[in-house]
Amino acid sequence: MPRLPILVFATLLPVAIEAGEVPLNRALNQEFYAVAPWDDGQAEVARYAVEAIVAADLTTQTLVLVTKPETLNAEFYAVADFPFQEKPLRPALRQSSFATLSSPTEPQHVATMLFVDLEAPQNALRLVTTTSSWSGITAKDFLLWEPRAPMRFSSFHDGAGTGERLLNLPDEALLEEQLPVVLRALAFEDGLQVRLTVANPQANDRVAAVQSSPAQARVEKQDGAWAVLLEAQDGRTIRFEFSAEFPYVLQAMDHSDGRRGVLTDVERRAYWMPAP
């Protein structure tokens, strides 16, 4: 695969509450996922070419993001099956990701399933992650709808095994895996500054403590696209680039941990396709 272009970080302001900053819930278009094209019953399928660091190796990766409104059975926070009668229902947005990392020493497959509130995408409802490699398999299930949200896990790593931990995240905290869904729903405006809180990444094979960090995001109009530049107090820096027009498809991402990706194609299609 040709080497991906390196996305250059713009200089960011220090993370602090400054004049002109707004909290995340005031910066979002809360109806973003409730209007066309999201109401057509189809899924947005976006494919990316990605580079990442795995076991000290620079790896190439293919990533697919599938984004679609769903109706959840709120008893289990799983996609509800027909018939819906007497089931407690909740509208949600689902984003599933499927990544394959090609590495000579540690090839990996990483999958996630994220549910967020359809009308308030800053409110995560559930996150499931699985990571499989030659070394083993780790699965994590974040039950975020519960008042004291637990993480259930099963890991091949010594000292982890199978168990459950309470997350104790601030109510306003976003998952890092949630950022693509939330940031594309911003009411984009050049110079907009947003304060937010972001948890450390969870789409990996470690069962580490889930922590969060205050962060600042700044929106800039650059080369016909919307760039969102995010800096967290824990040292993470992430640059997202979204298309200039609604529905603001994620075009590129560059993370200070070495991950970066570029959109290769995007389509809207029926989620279940009949066999040819």
In helices, the fraction of residues equals: under 10%
The portion of residues forming beta strands comes to over 45%
Domain tally: 1
> How would you state the average pLDDT, rounded?
89
The total count of helices amounts to 2
Helix-strand string: EHEEEEEEEEEEHEEEEEE
Descriptive notes:
This protein is mainly β. It has one domain. The protein contains 2 helices and 17 strands. It has helices at 24-27, 179-183; strands at 21-23, 43-54, 57-73, 78-79, 89-102, 108-117, 120-133, 137-142, 150-154, 162-166, 173-174, 193-199, 212-222, 225-232, 237-243, 250-255, 260-269. The chain has a 17-stranded mixed sheet that branches. The chain is globular and about 45 Å long. The model is unreliable at 1-19 (pLDDT under 50).
